[in-house]
Amino acid sequence: MTKKIILSGNRPTGRLHWGNYTGALENWIRLQDEYDCYFMVADWHVLTTALDKSHEIRDNSREMILDWLGAGLDPDRSVLFVQSAVKEHAELYLVACMLISMGRLERNPTFKEQVRDLDLAGEISFGHLGYPVLQAADILAYRAHAVPVGEDQLPHLELCREIARRFNHHFGELFPEPEGLVTKFGRFPGTDGRRMSKSLGNAVEIAAPPEEIRAKLKTAFTDPQRLRRSDPGNPDVCAVYTWYQKFLPDEVERTAAECRSAERGCVDCKKRLADGAIAYFEPLRERRAGYESHPNRVAEIVDAGCARARAVASETLARVRDAMGVG
């Protein structure tokens, strides 16, 4: 029986962080046996907000692929490829642009949040406004049935579904309307309590060495009302407590009780969390180091993935041209 298809990707802006792992990457790893998987280095998407850093994309792409392989993505079960190496994405993006209005893009809540967080008012390019359309083209190029995402990307997925419906209405049924596969930890807090993001400077990398993890957790956001060690705390507003739920689930109830009773202080709580997070990611760090020591093998994996992705996307675009009567 033919497996359903999933497509997802990350922008190569550097090494991946805990939010990337819990929001998407961890989910990808679980899905490799259940779906035909396409995982994309979304290098064109970097240009929407960091055009001046285009010279960093190749190095960042290499680091991110190493994180993928270290985390457990298997090139024998998944297609790992680079977006810009498959030109059909750009052609399908052009078609998709004709199927959505400017007003619809401007109402996108994730876009509004990004403009606010990055202070981009007055400096918004057409490409940035339309990047959810490029995301839709990425997904539709493989006629994906599902997309593993963090919850912040669900508005973009709904826009993709709209574009698929409009194409199918005008030109005949070709594209599935992809469903979102969201993890429990779809939005993961950063060290300052806001959504974890490299651009906000509040991220902890999944391949960070133990000393870096300890240093970053020392300053992490906790209950702002807990001013003294003897004050009872509220774990429900504490980023550190959220991380316990992921990395030390067996200690969650005890941690909450000791926080509320002031039996445990924030310093001790962070130290225990650091130990747990370091142990959690140790296998990833070891696998990543193994791949990093064999760069030719990594290059072969990417080249083979790009060839496989190109073959599928080329077939999709041939069907799109035939349906539209163009090209």
What does this structure look like?
This protein is mainly alpha-helical and 327 residues long. The chain has two domains: 5-188 and 295-324, HUPs (Rossmann fold); 208-288, Tyrosyl-Transfer RNA Synthetase, CATH 1.10.240.10. It contains 14 helices and five strands. A three-stranded parallel β-sheet has the order 1-2-3. Helix 8 (131-140) crosses helix 9. It starts with a strand and ends with a helix. The model has no long low-confidence stretch (mean pLDDT 93).
Helix and strand topology:
Blueprint (H helix, E strand, L loop, with lengths): L4 E6 L7 H14 L4 E6 L1 H4 L10 H15 L6 E5 L5 H10 L4 H5 L2 H9 L8 H4 L1 H10 L5 E4 L4 H18 L7 E4 L27 H9 L20 H9 L4 H9 L5 H27 L2 H30 L3
Parallel strand pairs: 1-2, 2-3, 4-5
Helix pairs in contact: 3-13, 4-8, 4-14, 8-9, 10-13, 11-13
